[in-house]
């Protein structure tokens, strides 16, 4: 963005912008360049860009079936990444932490000379205690009060704390900052993995609740009469009716699991295979009821479907839309846009990176000095 545009957006004069960008450039966070093509009369305003290749964070994404680690540059660009599978073997804190730390240290050590790691962020598929990264509850593999954040920080050993967030919460932030929800501060993000997670932004801020465990939309009751049993112990939850198990059982593939199995059913439905098409349509009905409830409650500008729901929505959009028209209040739904994730499978990974960058963005000069000092002593 040009200095002139920055000055206008921030409501300050150009000399103030010059002073600020000069400070940031001096510590290696931004660079200033002449515009590629000057339009109009007068001297062109310099363009300010983030130092994507020089300042990065380590981002970790822990899903039920996979572990992803990336080096993400300032500005949201994935510079390098590693990925591996995660077996569904129950409480696996030590295995997950060891695997993530090995991959993370590999990316950290491979970073070019002169670069700096400004933070570490992690996304986990469970309920996260704010502040210390404790996984209070991860239903699929039985995690209860597992010290994920502190254990990963210790195993990684680069002198930086690990900021941990719930995957759907971070996905909501990522889609608002860099994906389908840019410009829509009232946003609902729905993330499909085995179950369904949710992140709700109101005025650009996450609706966290009293203790930070808000937005568990997957456990919103949608089928109270003969609902399927949910991992949370209830019946008829949104994720029980729309998640992986419901879809695969509906097509007679209950012995299979994983995102590729889900996506193969969705592809079959898109190609017109009758059993798959019927299953996806039924799932779309329940998903539409859940989204209608959310629209009535929060009047969002955009609802973003991420994870496996991204592909599911592409095929089940007619059923979702019909339920919203049937159950959603017209004044609440008239401006709500339903969109697939703009970041695809990387939404939660980019959200983890944004979490890692938060301290730097809040206090750039102090934080960049602190991180450089920490890495000098590692």
Automatic annotation (TrEMBL):
| PANTHER family on file | BIFUNCTIONAL UDP-N-ACETYLGLUCOSAMINE 2-EPIMERASE_N-ACETYLMANNOSAMINE KINASE (PTHR18964:SF149), ROK (REPRESSOR, ORF, KINASE) FAMILY (PTHR18964)
Please tell me the species this chain comes from: Actinoplanes subglobosus
Determine the domain of life of the protein's source: Bacteria
Q: What is this protein called?
A: ROK family protein
Record-linked Pfam families? ROK
Coiled-coil regions, chain positions: none
Q: Which family does it belong to?
A: Belongs to the ROK (NagC/XylR) family.
* SUPFAM superfamilies the record matches: Actin-like ATPase domain, Winged helix' DNA-binding domain
InterPro entries membership? ATPase_NBD (IPR043129), ROK (IPR000600), WH-like_DNA-bd_sf (IPR036388), WH_DNA-bd_sf (IPR036390)
